[in-house]
């Protein structure tokens, strides 16, 4: 970012000589020479008048006290760049009447001639300034140290280029150019994402981001007039914003996506947000799937909070009709429509399951044979289920920036790199976090690290991150598809089923396996064995006080329920959980053993069978800590029970109409019912604890997580056993240099499964 000063020094130096110098005998080549421009005192003084760079690092004072290397690095940067200033919070502890009092100061420092910190300003604060979200609070405490008419906010993951810095003077002139009824208050700047070459995921994010920060924001700025502030290369009219509430709203939770509120604030107070393509700032985006998922989760949660904010309400009230529609679809509406897309899949599949289990589907098909309109209506659904349609703006961006043929090649390449799986997976991430924030609130900042991370992620870590957001939902979709396959009456057979359900299967498989497809070395046999061992240790390790979710399944399970707080949220969760009981109600009447009996007795008997299964589960999972004295007796009882159940099942199959398919159908019926009971128990946790059933529910939840983990793990283990899959994955998903490095590291590692990439 200090290139801005270097550019100003050069421009000042070049414009210093006048035509009078030619008369003094200086040649034109001497005047246009840039030799020694950085040593010119006049040019440097002029640049210092125009430009200051305030780096805001709240914990710099603490880092200095602890002699951390980060503090030494910041001090080194200040010594290297004389125009650099650092703003930080200084905490001074004093003893008064035997009590330790903390005083907080907001300080600005620079490097003196000896390389030491020289204090410029020290402002006493009324208390601890860290009240709201971290980043906006950080900006708010430092903005008072800025000077001039314009301010550009820059994130830590951004970069700059000297040739772009030369254009800043032209950009600032835009404040005096007519851009509509009102003068500009935010000058939008495009971004150049430089991390696209690391892996296929990085290129997907890079292309998606590029299409938004160029083509997307240009259209939002003009003619739609609904461009807000989305990231941090934009240049603000400092006087306008500092006198109208600042550039950062920092209330906790509601302002988690703090950037966009600057745009809301500017628009509400009769500002004007523009966009300019001729200048750009570099930006590094997340390159690993977990980083991307956490970032998208944070943004989706932030959008859920925006729905509740007064800013969005006021904008909706004050915009004209067309501007209101544009604003809706480019902010909260995008996430709302994403959620509706996924809900459409669920509604469609539950509708199909109802038609299949009730027998209505069969009679409709028989009566409407040859009804083209009905068949067309049932078949169109697969067009809008795949998340690939979110990539349409990206394709348009390719065509505009690269030309039609190159755009086609880029798009085909992305498809071969499995971009459809990634975008479908992102659809699930956005839906989960947006929906959860709407239901329960409590969005939180998720630190992605933004590191240059392309390394193997353990199976257990992926499971913790995606279990509730993707895996549970994917397995629910698969169960619905299996019900449709088993009981759906279809004259056309296999082709009709495939045509109708291919997109739903694609959705489910993407949600289940994307974290492992895009995970480096996910299909290396040694790492797979180590991952399985790590996952089983995590699953079976009992939690306790101070144990984190990364170490114990029990601690993680408790963390996953923290968001359920309000009565309204509990009621909604309970209503949504009732859908799992549909499976049992429909399937028990389809069993051979029930014959044509449609009375409620059959359904009642199924609940008695389920209660028996739960009792058996309790017998086999009885805590051995309690039963130290009669461990032998317990094992004997468990053995006898197992043999009795097996014998009883064989006798029932032989003597009654119960068939082997009925046993599998019963599993299909009882598994969702158990999950539904578990969801309701978790929702009403305080009541379940009072009833003394919480430990039983926890044991049941562990069983379900073990089962889900095995369903996901077995295909990965099979692929790891095949040696060519890992090589194919590496070549497909990562750039050539990284692929070569990965192969070399595996050779060097030999038989040591613990070695890091």
From TrEMBL:
Pfam family membership, one: Glucan_synthase
Key words of the record: Membrane, Transmembrane, Transmembrane helix
UniProt keyword Amino-acid biosynthesis present: no
InterPro entries tied to this protein: Glyco_trans_48_dom
Transmembrane segments: 324-349, 382-400, 471-489, 495-518, 571-588, 600-620, 632-657, 663-682, 703-724
One annotated Gene Ontology cellular component of this protein: plasma membrane
GO molecular function, one term: 1,3-beta-D-glucan synthase activity
Nucleotidyltransferase recorded as keyword: no
Domain Glycosyl transferase span(s) in chain numbering: 1-579
Top-level taxon: Eukaryota
GO biological process, any: (1->3)-beta-D-glucan biosynthetic process
Entry-linked PANTHER family: CALLOSE SYNTHASE 9, LYST-INTERACTING PROTEIN LIP5 DOPAMINE RESPONSIVE PROTEIN DRG-1
Protein name as it appears in the record: Glycosyl transferase 48 domain-containing protein
Organism: Araucaria cunninghamii (Hoop pine)
Lineage of the organism: Eukaryota, Viridiplantae, Streptophyta, Embryophyta, Tracheophyta
